């Protein structure tokens, strides 16, 4: 990110000034590696604005790697009162956080349908249909 911010020809230079990282990790899937980049939730709106251009720049830099952006979110368990909170916000529940992470992973595309397929042996398969834009 620093190299993109420093380069004089970058058009997303001004937007990158406020962006910071929480961390990054490599994930290997079917002989290809994916780079998962975690951002703090506070800067996630800024990252979403420049997500498409930033992914293209990083995929050029790290060739043969998919780049995925995910916001760092907090999950509060059902015993959240120990932490001194009165109510648990819906955005902090396990289900809500997992739904949000799925939306982050599909990137600039939109989810317009989900199907849960349960096989005979009890395994669940979630099919996600993306907007064909």
UniProtKB/TrEMBL annotation:
GO biological process: ribosomal small subunit biogenesis; rRNA processing; translation
GO molecular function, one term: structural constituent of ribosome
Any one of the GO CC terms: 90S preribosome
Homology family: Belongs to the eukaryotic ribosomal protein eS7 family.
InterPro entries (alphabetical): Ribosomal_eS7
Residues making up the signal peptide according to the UniProt record: none
Protein name as catalogued: 40S ribosomal protein S7
Keywords: Ribonucleoprotein, Ribosomal protein
Top-level taxonomy: Eukaryota, Sar, Stramenopiles, Ochrophyta, Chrysophyceae
Organism: Spumella elongata
PANTHER family: 40S RIBOSOMAL PROTEIN S7, SMALL RIBOSOMAL SUBUNIT PROTEIN ES7
